[in-house]
Specification:
CATH superfamily: Flavodoxin domain
Helix content: 25-40%
CATH topology: Rossmann fold
Radius of gyration: 16 Å
Distance between the termini: 18 Å
Strand content: 15-25%
CATH architecture: 3-Layer(aba) Sandwich
Order of helices and strands: EHEHEHHEHEEH
Number of strands: 6
Number of domains: 1
Length: 203
């Protein structure tokens, strides 16, 4: 069983990547059967969807960019949970995140490949209240269009997802935010295991 983290920052290895590492580490701690994978979009040539409709009958896109190389990873049947992480720009997701969401329409059109995958969202803002929850809900809306199972960051906070603040010296100084990232990773893994018919850790 695999939990896939997708980092939608245009900058490699920065705050969102670091938060996602924390999130996936917590997911991996939920059982030896759980494998985690982190996919970064930074540096990739991802162009907007043209709504050409060619992916309605095949799992392929005619746009000649880097998205084609991501299709096998995204379509992998071992992926039981997906966590999307994005910085917050002007109260919303990054262009990379929106492009990914739009291009992923092919997975809905071709036998609902994302259906019943557990979805979690992580958002990093430069200010404490900079639109993290609004951004999370926007990504969750796309997940629900794939018939995914959206989860919160779980107990004890159980809000929309992981919300982090990078403006105080980086996410590594945001203890509360990092806790929500760990909780989200744990929750995605817990529910993914239940969906696959397994017991929760310690259950």
């Amino acid at each position: 069983m695999k939990i896939l983290g997708i980092c939608c920052s245009p900058r490699p290895g920065q705050s969102t990547f670091q938060a996602m590492q924390t999130c996936l580490a917590a997911a991996g701690e939920q059982g030896e059967d759980i494998e985690t994978d982190l996919l970064e979009l930074a540096g990739r040539d991802l162009r907007p969807c043209l709504a050409c409709g060619e992916c309605k009958t095949q799992l392929a896109c005619p746009i000649d960019d880097d998205f084609g190389s991501l299709i096998p990873t995204l379509a992998d049947p071992e992926v039981a949970g997906m966590i999307v992480g994005t910085p917050v720009y002007f109260g919303m997701m990054t262009a990379q995140c929106k492009t990914l969401i739009d291009r992923c329409v092919m997975f809905r059109r071709n036998d609902w490949i994302f259906r019943n995958r557990v979805g979690g969202v992580l958002a990093v803002g430069g200010v404490r209240n900079g639109g993290q929850e609004l951004t999370i809900q926007a990504v969750q809306a796309a997940m629900m269009c794939h018939d995914m199972i959206c989860v919160s960051d779980g107990q004890p906070t159980a809000h929309f997802g992981a919300t982090l603040f990078s403006g105080g010296g980086g996410v590594q100084t945001d203890d509360f935010g990092l806790a929500t990232a760990r909780h989200l990773g744990r929750r995605v893994a817990e529910v993914a295991r239940r969906m696959r018919g397994g017991a929760e850790k310690g259950g």
